[in-house]
Amino acid sequence: MTTAKMGVRIRIESRSAGQATKQTAEGELYLKGEHVYIRYEEKPSELGRTVTLIKLEAGQVKIIRQGDVQADQTFVPGEKRVGFYQTAQGRMELEMETHELTQNMEAGIGTVHWSYDLYASGEHAGHYRIKLNIQKGQGS
């Protein structure tokens, strides 16, 4: 089975407690069975270099970060999932209680919205609303 691969441009908008952040990146999208994988390198920061993999499937979003920052977060509506966030300074356990998740995509291109409450080391760390926009990149 061959895996379709194309360049994509993604935009992630995050809202929490009246604060909004936006991140854009160029990456690669792979279609494999019923799953969509998006892989991109985050802009280098004081924490170093990190590659992020987003796995999209029906009713679930999984985000895996590897490199100088490592993290694993899974979002499933109506469920609380355990994950982690790790830097050179240490590791923190995370819990994501997902409230809603909607996907409007065709062949991996489109938008995904989800909202969740984040708990870090057992303490409520905020309510987040995420919008992931996936567009075909240059030359695709």
From TrEMBL:
It holds the Pfam family DUF1934. It comes from the Bacteria. InterPro entries: Calycin (IPR012674), DUF1934 (IPR015231). This is DUF1934 domain-containing protein.
